[in-house]
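Entry type: protein chain
Record version: 2
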Amino acid sequence: MVEHYEEYNKEALARQWQRLGEGVDRVNHLIGRTEEIIKRTFNAEQRQRIIQSAQRTVESVGQTVSEMMETAPLPQISPLTPQPEVRSIRPPSSRRNESNRER
């Protein structure tokens, strides 16, 4: 049982890394296309203003996220952490009656 879980865990982690890598490749491609469009659309002065504005926005968002993380830390749970199975304590017959009432 543990052996299968560890195998699954490794495979799932490998799939996550592969998807992450594919996502990074797509983002890099989009960045390249965006740069081409910006160079064709705006002159050097306009591009410089856009870059400065984007840098200020990134810094501001980064600061806001940092402050949020300090005040309300998120639980450190891996997406691969097995979640407890939730089961009803009601007998099967009462669950069926509830399902019928909801319809």
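Comment: The chain has a mean pLDDT of 78.
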